[in-house]
Specification:
It is a single chain. The relative contact order is 0.16. The protein has four helices and four strands. By secondary structure, it is of the alpha+beta class. 53% of the residues lie in helices and 13% in strands. The chain is rod-shaped, with a radius of gyration of 27 Å.
Length: 195
């Protein structure tokens, strides 16, 4: 049940990230098609995403060589994104919820270190979408640590429900056995009195 619920949660996260990346790419593409200067477009995009909440996920934009053009954290602009810093290897290689769940749960635990490509990153790229008429790519990130915390919370909630359900079933079973036992005990006492 935890796996099914987690897969549904991850599917929602992935679909949301895909939709956000596609809409963002369409916005950038439409600005370029309307003749707005590339530098103005970059400036507009940076203003719109700078300082946004990166808690659950976010989008950024980089060029064909992997250099960050726009990012919610301005200090990351101009830095190169290496291919090994992402779950996604190419634009047409999408991640699904099963793969994402497997990456989150089957990570190697050597000394408590995750087997993610880059341990210093708080997020991983889960979807890439190209911007039409440019050499730019929109990347949708997912915050791995927050997702892991939500999965742990989900596991805890399931465990709590199972424990409470088990305790209730045991208590009801005990009461039922006690009630039936006392009924048969009274029946036996009546038979004994007749004898």
């Amino acid at each position: 049940m935890v796996k099914v619920s987690t897969n549904q949660f991850l599917e929602i996260q992935i679909e949301s990230s895909k939709r956000e990346a596609r809409e963002f790419a369409e916005l950038v593409s439409s600005q370029l098609e309307n003749g707005i200067d590339r530098q103005t477009v970059i400036s507009n995009i940076q203003k719109s995403i700078e300082g946004t909440d990166i808690e659950s996920g976010f989008v950024c934009m980089f060029d064909w060589s992997g250099v960050e053009i726009c990012h919610p954290d301005p200090q990351k602009i101009g830095k190169k994104t290496n291919p090994d810093e992402s779950y996604v290897r190419s634009i047409d290689n999408e991640i699904n919820s099963e793969d994402f769940y497997g990456l989150l749960t089957n990570k190697k635990q050597k000394g408590g270190i995750r087997d993610f490509p880059n341990e210093d990153r708080n997020s991983e790229i889960i979807y890439l979408y190209p911007v039409k008429n440019s050499d730019w790519i929109i990347a949708a990130h997912a915050n791995i640590s927050k997702i892991e915390k939500q999965i742990e919370k989900l596991k805890f909630n399931f465990l709590l429900v199972y424990l409470l359900s088990s305790a209730t079933i045991v208590l009801l079973s005990l009461l039922t056995v006690r009630f039936l036992g006392s009924y048969y005990e009274k029946t036996l006492e009546l038979k004994n009195e007749k004898l």
